[in-house]
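Record type: monomer structure entry
Structure origin: computed from sequence
Chain ID: A
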Amino acid sequence: ITTCSQSNFDFVKSLGATHVIDYNKDDVKAKVMEITNNEGVDAWIENVSAESGDIGYSCLSFAGEFVSIAGSSEIKGSGARSGHIIFLGAAYKSGLVDKISEIRYIGDEMVKLYEQGKIQSLLTEVISFDKIRDYLLKLKERHVKGKIVAKVQN
């Protein structure tokens, strides 16, 4: 299950999504609960915002896993939850070496999965240095899919 705008439905389905919810027009929590027969999802990986993280947290099943890559959610979900909650940004901002090394471990594991062909890169575009400002505006408005790399030098 994933969320995106209607224009990205085909793209996320090509990545393997079996259910796609349009976050612009649908009630995400209601749709998730409908798809899961009111049991919720086993995992939610949040990479958009703290606000959508709050929605994701409220969609977890009992003992569900919640990972936030895009800021720290305030965990405003309803109902009792039991599970793992990971805020990658908070670990980095803490400045604690042992916590930062955990992020390195996660990164190393991601590289292994990529090398094994179990996950794929979503690099969609390489841009020149002079286009960075334009693309930062697109990122801010969440009108970008995949990852963009800026080429700083020729």
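Annotation 1: The beta strands are 2-4, 20-22, 41-46, 60-68, 85-87, 123-128, 147-151.
Annotation 2: The two ends are 40 Å apart (CA to CA).
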